[in-house]
UniProtKB/TrEMBL annotation:
Interacts with SEL1L. May interact with OS9 and DNAJC10. Interacts with TXNDC16. One of its GO terms (cellular component) is endoplasmic reticulum lumen. InterPro entries: Auxin_biosynth/cation_transpt, FAD/NAD-bd_sf. Residues 1-26 form the signal peptide. Keywords: Endoplasmic reticulum, FAD, Flavoprotein, Glycoprotein, Oxidoreductase, Signal. This is FAD-dependent oxidoreductase domain-containing protein 2. Pfam families: Pyr_redox_3. The lineage of its organism: Eukaryota, Metazoa, Chordata, Craniata, Vertebrata. Belongs to the FOXRED2 family. The keyword Endoplasmic reticulum applies. GO terms for biological process: ERAD pathway. Its cofactor is FAD. It comes from the Eukaryota. PANTHER family: FAD-DEPENDENT OXIDOREDUCTASE DOMAIN-CONTAINING PROTEIN 2, FLAVIN-BINDING MONOOXYGENASE-LIKE PROTEIN (AFU_ORTHOLOGUE AFUA_4G09220).
Length: 403
């Protein structure tokens, strides 16, 4: 191909020469801003970047925005309030009582137009986020899973480096600022003897008929645990719920992430001395053993280690931990232990680490939401909740809109 033909193909000799001299530019498409995740936080940031005429792109692993809400919560009812009426005409006041809407200049892109329910269905959130991205023309690359993120040191970059993002097909992208809005997606698991018998909240059946006449143990004591219990409360023999800490009720703690009244049916039956019960114990001290009939028994790890016997001969813990003994056998054990941030895709060069004991599920960030390990890496949305964990509502849409 002659130079004149090449110029017609590329547009200008200067651009062709740039690619010839810097092949990395051809291999790594560059953007000023890269956003990971097209959930609520990622789309909200994309909106503001677009309004500011910035060079950006959003990477989304699914074929549409809000993929988390396609599956979660498993029983489809959100705990974010859809407050449609306040008696006030002030738009800002009304928005502060609207827990689901994102900020935009379009009055039709308010969640009140997508659901009439006070606690809306998760499917309505998926539909809303899809319209938000489409109607505003946000630049999202769908079906693109970023599998690895690393640093490329460069003294000419404003922060001394560029971020290199590689997708599932091996395509690499380069950006100056990385905005991480991936949420919490890794189920939290506790490793103890017999933990392989535990069914996860993310995969257990949601059909109540599958639990008829069964004894069920639920590990965890948050909204997902009580949501699961609420779904099967009327068909089980009984439900026991086990966690290392006491139930924290949102109306008492004023923290929206604690147990909400809409999910606390099991707590009601427990207080009324029905067959259901709550137990407090550290999961790491326990063990599960299966008998010859396939029934699951809870014991203490040290009893299992000392006995070295068959499941039927293992001593069971007595009732010194609570007001009933775990002497019964269970048909199902379900783990509802919450979620963690996915650190696995980030190279160690980014120095992206978790916080302390009470915020280890979140990446460690400054008050400005910038990572403490890498300049130019910012964490958005639910994943940034370490900044106001148990203090404010940053784990919800209406919280991170303002934080």
């Amino acid at each position: 191909m002659g130079l004149s033909a090449t110029v017609l193909f590329w547009g200008s000799p200067g651009l062709l020469l740039a690619f010839a001299l810097h092949p990395a530019l051809a291999l790594h498409p560059h953007r000023d801003y890269c956003v990971l995740g097209a959930g609520p936080a990622g789309l909200q940031m994309a909106y503001f970047l677009q309004r500011a005429r910035r060079d950006y792109v959003v990477f989304e692993r699914s074929s549409r925005p809000g993929s988390f809400f396609l599956r979660y919560p498993r029983h489809r009812k959100l705990i974010s309030i859809n407050k449609r009426y306040t008696g006030k005409a002030n738009a800002e006041f009304n928005l502060r009582h609207d827990w689901n809407s994102l900020l935009s200049h379009d009055p039709q892109l308010l969640f009140r137009h997508y659901s009439r329910a006070y606690f809306p269905d998760a499917g309505d959130m998926v539909r809303y986020l899809g319209d938000f991205a489409d109607r505003l023309g946000l630049r999202v690359l769908y079906n693109t899973t970023i599998a690895h993120v690393t640093l490329d040191k460069d003294g000419q970059a404003w922060n001394g480096h560029y971020f290199i993002l590689t997708d599932q097909k091996g395509q690499a992208y380069r950006c100056s600022v990385l905005l991480v809005a991936t949420g919490l997606s890794v189920p939290n698991q506790v490793d103890f003897p017999g933990s392989e018998y535990v069914e996860g909240y993310e995969s257990v059946s949601i059909d109540p008929e599958d639990f008829e006449g069964q004894n069920v143990l639920i590990l965890g004591r948050g909204n997902s645990a009580f949501e699961t219990a609420e779904n099967i409360l009327g068909v089980t023999n009984f439900i026991h719920m086990l966690s290392r800490s006491r139930v924290r009720l949102s109306w008492a703690t004023h923290y929206v992430g604690d147990l909400r009244a809409i999910n606390n049916g099991l707590l009601d039956t427990y207080q009324l001395k029905s067959l259901d019960g709550l137990l407090e114990s550290d999961l790491e001290d326990l063990a599960l053993v299966k008998d010859h009939e396939g029934k699951l028994h809870v014991t203490l790890k040290f009893l299992l280690e000392e006995a070295n016997q068959s499941a039927e001969a293992i001593a069971l813990p007595q009732d010194d931990n609570d007001n009933f003994a775990l002497r019964v056998a269970y048909d199902r054990v379900i783990g509802c232990l919450g979620w963690n941030f996915n650190f696995s895709i980030f190279n160690s060069s980014l120095r992206l680490s978790s916080g302390g004991a009470f915020s280890k599920k979140y990446p460690l960030v400054k008050a400005s939401y910038e990572s403490k390990g890498s300049r130019g890496l910012f964490v958005l949305g639910t994943a940034s909740h370490s900044v106001d964990y148990r203090k404010s509502a940053g784990g919800f849409i209406h919280g991170f809109r303002y934080t």
